[in-house]
Specification:
Strand 5, helix 5 and strand 6 form a beta-alpha-beta unit. The chain has two domains: about 150 residues, NAD(P)-binding Rossmann-like Domain (Rossmann fold), CATH 3.40.50.720; about 160 residues, Dihydrodipicolinate Reductase, domain 2 (2-Layer Sandwich). Strands 7, 8, 9, 10, 11, 12, 13, 14, 15 and 16 form a ten-stranded mixed sheet that branches. The protein has a six-stranded parallel sheet with strand order 3-2-1-4-5-6, with helices on both faces. By secondary structure, it is of the alpha/beta class.
């Protein structure tokens, strides 16, 4: 590996600019190229970050240079084409944002192409990559809190592929298991029949490969994330923040919270994007695996599709992996097509000086 990995950012919208901020901060990476179809924004972002090699599409980038790393931060509709083009051109490491695709076959194509070519394929900005989430999982898996006894997901609704991939990814990490069967109820009925997941709420049960069952609450509870508990009366709770850990009860009968001294990590100003990118770069150097992988994103999409399918069929059990890889669940139009198309464009002035 060179001292500085050469990085191309494909997609220079709001999230792409967050990747740019990170990659231009790290001492072991150098952003060498930007790709975006909007010429005014591309020029403004290039000037802001001092990047001179600007391209309107991935083909033009790859015809002129093959970077070590490609961070694909486009709307979901364009992820597959960009990721596979980069893999076939010889890019060593590729990351994509969430959700990975709308159709399972497209997710398969990206995962399989990268695996076939030995490309490190990472996922994006998910809380599974938060340093504290990884540390809590490590301590749980070491047996410190006892043997797992159960799990629950709270507030699984709104976007079960675009946002729900956060819950599914944390659940799989904590449980060290895959979802093998889904039994789901979906509401409201008019949303359940649409082709995208905006506004869809799911209640149900996930059967996991380790024998546990995870209760799924889409309707309101006091929490919003993932709980796992053990036979030794420990509870780990991820609620869109560093996980809280409780063991036993205090004298008032209230769960006793442990003071978990999570180790600090460098570049925490980028929040959980730091863990995602830094573990990805470490994997490129032969040190471990990405904390979010393309496989993780594919699994989250498959569970979301299974949820919609179970609910549509009248809450019948649906086994995973799904045999029909043509099954599709579109994310919200904003995630699928981007703000430029769905009425939330970024102005050139904002792109020039986004805080």
């Amino acid at each position: 590996m060179p001292d500085k990995l050469r990085v191309a950012i494909i997609g220079c919208g709001r999230m792409g600019q967050e990747y740019l901020r990170a990659y231009t901060t790290y001492p072991d990476t150098q952003v060498v190229a930007l790709v975006d179809p909007q010429p005014d924004r591309l020029k403004a972002v290039g000037e802001r970050f001092g990047v001179e090699a600007l391209f309107s599409n991935p083909d033009k980038l790859l015809a002129e240079m093959v970077p070590d790393v490609a961070a694909v931060v486009t709307p979901v509709k364009y992820l597959k084409y960009a990721a596979i083009a980069c893999a076939q051109a010889g890019v060593k490491g590729i990351s994509v944002e969430k959700p990975i695709a709308a159709t399972l076959a497209d997710a398969d194509a990206m995962v399989n192409e990268c695996a076939r070519r030995g490309v490190v394929f990472a996922g994006g900005n998910l809380q599974r990559a938060m340093n504290e989430v990884q540390e809590a999982a490590r301590r749980l898996h070491s047996g410190e809190f006892g043997e797992l006894a159960g799990a629950a997901i709270h507030a699984f609704g709104g976007e079960i592929s675009g946002g729900g991939c956060q819950h599914i990814s944390v659940l799989r990490l904590f449980a060290q298991a895959e979802v093998e069967e889904v039994l789901a109820w979906g509401s409201p009925s008019e949303v359940l029949t649409q082709d995208h997941d905006t506004g869809l709420t799911i209640n149900g049960v996930f059967s996991l490969s380790n024998g546990l069952e995870c209760q799924v609450f889409g309707t309101a509870t006091p929490y919003r994330g993932v709980d796992v508990w053990t036979h030794q009366d420990a509870l780990l709770r991820w609620d869109w923040a560093p996980p809280q850990v409780y063991v036993g009860l205090d004298t008032t009968g209230t769960r006793r919270q442990l003071d978990i001294k999570y180790p600090p990590y460098q570049w925490s100003e980028f929040s959980y994007l730091t863990g995602s990118i830094r573990s990805f770069l470490a994997a490129l150097k032969g040190q471990g695996t990405p904390w979010i992988s393309g496989h993780d994103l594919r699994q989250a999409l498959e569970v979301a599709i299974a949820c919609q399918r179970s609910a549509r069929l009248g809450h019948v059990p649906v086994r995973l992996p799904l045999e029909d890889r043509s099954l599709t669940l579109y994310p919200s139009p904003y995630r699928w097509l981007g703000g430029d198309v769905t009425g939330l464009p970024q102005s050139v002035a904002e792109a020039r000086d986004q805080k």
